[in-house]
């Protein structure tokens, strides 16, 4: 790699407050906030709104969209179908 052109790549803690979940990884992202990790070292922490611990796809709490119910509701509201031209 060419020296001096790449951003610093260092350990960072990403924390999902909604799921009370955090993981340590390496990243070029930086933060002024820090947290003491399980190993006793202090790392920069980046708070994220959603992670694999809180995302519905990964947690299995994903809602199934009732498309048939939506079609029936549309037909009730606006009629079955209008005459074809």
Automatic annotation (TrEMBL):
Pfam families: Ribosomal_L31. Part of the 50S ribosomal subunit. HAMAP family: Ribosomal_bL31_2. This is Large ribosomal subunit protein bL31B. GO terms for cellular component: ribosome. The keyword Chaperone does not apply. Belongs to the bacterial ribosomal protein bL31 family. Type B subfamily. Transmembrane segments: none annotated. InterPro entries: Ribosomal_bL28/bL31-like_sf, Ribosomal_bL31, Ribosomal_bL31_B, Ribosomal_bL31_sf. Keywords: Ribonucleoprotein, Ribosomal protein. The keyword NAD does not apply. NCBIfam families: L31, PRK01678.1. Gene3D superfamilies: Ribosomal protein L31 (4.10.830.30).
């Amino acid at each position: 790699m060419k020296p001096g052109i790449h951003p610093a790549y260092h350990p960072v803690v990403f924390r999902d407050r909604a799921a009370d979940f955090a993981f340590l990884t390496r990243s070029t992202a930086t933060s002024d906030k820090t947290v003491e990790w399980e190993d006793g070292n202090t790392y920069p922490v980046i708070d994220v709104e959603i992670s694999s611990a809180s995302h519905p796809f990964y947690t299995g709490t994903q809602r199934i969209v009732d498309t048939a119910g939506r079609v029936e509701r549309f037909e009730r509201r606006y009629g079955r179908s209008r005459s074809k031209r």
